[in-house]
DNA-binding transcriptional regulator, AcrR family
Amino acid sequence: MTKAEKTRIFIVEKTAPIFNMKGYAGTSLNDITAATGLTKGSIYGNFANKDEVALAAFDYNLKNVSSKIDAEMNKQRSIKDKLLVYIDIYQKFIDGSVSEGGCPVLNTAIDADDTHPELRGKVLKAVLDWKNKIAKLVEAGIAGKEIDADQDPEQIALTIIAMVEGGIMISKLTSKVEYWSLIMGSLKKYVESLG
Amino acid sequence: MTKAEKTRIFIVEKTAPIFNMKGYAGTSLNDITAATGLTKGSIYGNFANKDEVALAAFDYNLKNVSSKIDAEMNKQRSIKDKLLVYIDIYQKFIDGSVSEGGCPVLNTAIDADDTHPELRGKVLKAVLDWKNKIAKLVEAGIAGKEIDADQDPEQIALTIIAMVEGGIMISKLTSKVEYWSLIMGSLKKYVESLG
DNA sequence: ACTAAAATATACCGATCGGTATTTATTAGG
DNA sequence: CCTAATAAATACCGATCGGTATATTTTAGT
């Protein structure tokens, strides 16, 4: 790995939480140099512009959360347990024990959907991939008789994502983990009612 | 009503959708003068600074949506129907027939929670008021035997808000009204299962 | 160790940022 | 209609914005 490649990764690691908290417009080049200790010349030696840093930061934040989800899902045997891994994982994003700025999908969706087409494209793909992944899980659950055959996999996927993301918004804003627990209690009941 | 009061309202009306779409950091004074046709001097003759415009814009956006919700709720007789008015109202915010930038509560919560304490305080209050309002409706539903007595009003309130806001995020990002319909189908089932 | 290439720092660019002091135009009351 | 008060426009402020050309340092292959 060349020096520039290392620096690129370093810049992304250091700025990803900032973009997640402040958003694209709210994160300045000064924020980036301050977080990395590097100069503007060095940043622009490794990235064409601020957009490229923001896009790379989103990829990094997304991979960070989705790899944790994948790892936790692999530990679970039943489909229903797999569908419920979000509860524990996202709690850490809310109560500060992981400490970033919440879910990058939610943050970037709201931040970019009316302002930044390229970033919007990335988060759009992330949501659709997420939906398809859950839908496939549900299909597997139906095939394995764990979930009733009359259930709509896409509807279930969208409902789960909505509850999770809406729950994150509420819990992060209010700083109330109890709210997260209550909403996730409803999610648990919902998943258990599927079959 | 004095001229200045009219101008203040005019400025808020014209800039509220911009703040809702672009967020606080993403909305510049140039955006404000362009949207109003006024000059910077005139803006600052009516507002102390950009913060004051943003705060007034949030109040305006919030009142706009909540008054529509109140009006629609008053048309409904049963508690369950009252709890389901969000379905039709927010659809208009998503499919463009009302054309703003989505739900101001969601947008401002994500935009301000890590960056703008004053704005965060306003949206925090809005969410808590919203939660309490739904919880009171549920309590009335329990009193009127429409909803089972073992249901937790706060949990129901939080769950409904999470599904609505999460659903808005997904549907607005993907521009798919079908997704909204599917998620709201789950909400309908949820509300009907309450008693 | 030497050197060419790669990477970082320095210094600077015009544009835009939020904000203000002052001047001009408009409003409303007598 | 005149005038004092109010409101809006003009012109300007320093700071910061994203970005770049150039100089300096560091890296890595021989």
Notes: The domain at 3-192 of chain A is CATH 1.10.357.10 (Tetracycline Repressor; domain 2). Residues 2-3, 28-30, 40-41, 44, 49-50 of chain A lie near DNA strand D (CB under 10 Å from a C1'). The interface with chain B takes residues 21-26, 101-102, 106-107, 109-111, 113-115, 120, 123-124, 127-128, 152, 154-156, 158-159, 161-167, 169-170, 172-174, 179, 182-183, 185-186, 190 of chain A (CB under 8 Å).
